[in-house]
């Protein structure tokens, strides 16, 4: 079932998604060597609740925290804890908010202090790949157009796209149909319609595309130990083109 949202519903999703973006922006100012991922989690939960939202990840299928802070070779779904950030790390932070019955979801990968040139390039290429995917989120196009734009951008820069995790529809639930893969041929898959809202989220590895899940049952890491980056936006498909809902002054 694919939902087409009325304007009021899109505005409700925007409220949740904008709080996600503001949370990411606030977290970005706290990222420096010595901070623990649990510190960031506490900050995020307080920030979201003070503004009338609910951290959507907390309790989701038993997940114990409000954010997923994935460091270096961790791809997504890492659990906050005592790990301290170190100079040269990269940290992808995924945040979800429910507000007034609607959901927003976004992620951003931050450098911790100065990072290697390779890590900097991985961040830039992943962010550009998200932008290329969003540019295809137009009524009349197909899901595969988004997927293909992301994959071709990533692979043209020598990086690889994670296959086993995908973007998704979002609205009344955090994960709705359709799935939005980050790879695949263009002009395939469901046709996009105005009023659809999608979470588009490339996960890009510096090495090979394979991932494994750690024994904690949550943390997804690259199989070869290479770095991984993740950027995500909640995007509405409008008649005039894509509209990023998880935007807070350029975050
Ligand atoms: Mg998502």
From TrEMBL:
Cofactor annotation remark: Binds 2 divalent metal cations per subunit. Has a high-affinity and a low affinity metal-binding site. The true nature of the physiological cofactor is under debate. The enzyme is active with cobalt, zinc, manganese or divalent iron ions. Most likely, methionine aminopeptidases function as mononuclear Fe(2+)-metalloproteases under physiological conditions, and the catalytically relevant metal-binding site has been assigned to the histidine-containing high-affinity site.
EC numbers for this chain: 3.4.11.18
Subunit: Monomer.
Residues that bind substrate: 77, 175
Residues the record lists as binding a divalent metal cation 2: 105, 168, 201, 232
Necessary cofactors: Co(2+); Zn(2+); Mn(2+); Fe(2+)
Domain of life: Bacteria
Task performed by this protein: Removes the N-terminal methionine from nascent proteins. The N-terminal methionine is often cleaved when the second residue in the primary sequence is small and uncharged (Met-Ala-, Cys, Gly, Pro, Ser, Thr, or Val). Requires deformylation of the N(alpha)-formylated initiator methionine before it can be hydrolyzed.
Descriptive protein name: Methionine aminopeptidase
GO cellular component terms attached to this protein's record: cytosol
CDD domains, alphabetized: MetAP1
HAMAP family recorded: MetAP_1
Keywords: Aminopeptidase, Hydrolase, Metal-binding, Protease
Keyword Nucleus found: no
